Amino acid sequence: MSAGVSLKHRVIMFLLELFVFFACFRECLSSPLDHVKGYMLTDRRADAFVPEITPSASPQPFLPLLAPSPLSPFTNSSVPKLSGLCILNFTAAQSLMSMTSIDCWAAFAPLLANVICCPQLHATLVILVGQSSKDTGVLALNRTLANPCLSDIEKVLEGQGAGENLKQICSIHPSNLTEASCPVKDVDEFESTVNSSELLASCEKIDPVKECCDQVCQGAISEAAIRLALKASDPLNMDVPHVLPEHSTRVNDCKTVVLRWLASKLDPYRAKEVLRGLTNCNVNKVCPLVFPNMRHVANSCWNGINNQTACCDAMDSYVSHLQKQTLITNLQALDCATSLGLKLQKYNITRNVYSQCHISLKDFSLQVSGCLLPSLP
Fold it and tell me: Which first-to-last residue range defines the signal peptide (predicted)?
């Protein structure tokens, strides 16, 4: 029995590493060559955190930009039976839906939820509603259509290999397709309320690195969302700095409406790039891991005990539990390592157990040989 379980575990881990490799490879294929220009990792040991910068004249790697998705041969597509009530155009977004079904592949959707699946699914919902506004003139579905549309979206994705419980994994509800508490959903009213030309100029193309620091597009979205939210309380008071904290939910709902408007002005691929770039800024701000009670680590590693083997065994067990929760990014791993370090300090563990026990950033995530390279994020 144990041999069978061990073999099954090895097969699952092999498939996971294979999927992560393909996912990383797909991202490389879809990313501009600027992302790889001038960088070459010469050392992939756990302690090699600094990439070597090669001369600008060095040849660039050949990237087959038109290569097909690496997972397409492994996914079984079927034609789902849809409600016939949804007004969203799935055919026009066929490429987007296919990419989402791959990013939310059933076998790994729970593990990839935080970094890959859920950001892509949320972007897909925004783009579908935004594109439909070009025909309907509204940036939201009514509550009658939201339910069958969400059900149809699930069926289309499941028919292409996505997980069957994406609503639970990504906390998706029919309200994600409506205006929720935002008081503005008509395109004409939207464009008369916000500075739409400035908004589009700020967000039609973003640098995924600079945007997280400069927040040019995010600032424009926030300002537009606040202006929309204020219309619910006092149409004559459009003074953005006076928005109240209790309006935060309404502002967040209006941000979704703003994103749909942007998606209606961009082609689906460009809209996806912008939305994913904005999401990544938020994803990388926090550590998504849940830290369980660590008293056993404290008992084994507190400064009065010199049994390094027992301490490292406890740390390895604890970190192993963390890494099984979800796949995370480099920046999230940095934040998680910092958060765990602070918790260790609260238990009066002031020794550098990371160094003593050879724990690196890679140990905080599932992708042991995948995208979480031992390099600067």
Answer: 1-30
Enumerate the domain spans of the chain: 90-234+243-284, 294-363
Amino acid letter at 78? S
* Cα–Cα distance for residue pair 46/354, rounded to 1 Å: 12
CA angle, residues 354, 355, 360, in degrees to nearest 5: 60
pLDDT per position as a tens digit, 15-40: 555 555 555 444 443 433 333 333 22
Rounded to whole angstroms, the Cα distance separating 18 from 20 reads: 6
Burial (CB count <10 Å: 0-12, 13-18, 19+), residue 84: exposed
> pTM here?
0.70
Measured CA to CA, the distance from residue 172 to residue 176 in angstroms comes to 7
* Tokens linked to 179: 């205006």
pLDDT digits (tens, 9 = 90+) for 90-119: 988 899 999 999 999 988 888 888 889 999
Q: Decide if 287 contacts 325 (C-beta within 8 A).
A: no
Given a contact cutoff of 8 angstroms between Cβ atoms, the answer to whether 289 and 322 are in contact is yes
Cα torsion for 147, 187, 253, 335, to the nearest 10°?
Answer: 110
Contacts of the segment 151-154: beta carbons below 8 A, 24+ positions apart: 151/83, 152/80, 152/82, 152/83, 152/86, 152/88, 152/90, 153/86, 153/88, 153/90, 153/124, 153/125, 153/128
Using only the alpha carbons of the chain, give its radius of gyration: 23
Q: Cβ(203)–Cβ(221) under 8 Å? A: yes
Q: Label residue 1 exposed, middle or buried (CB < 10 Å: 0-12, 13-18, 19+).
A: exposed
DSSP state of 71: T
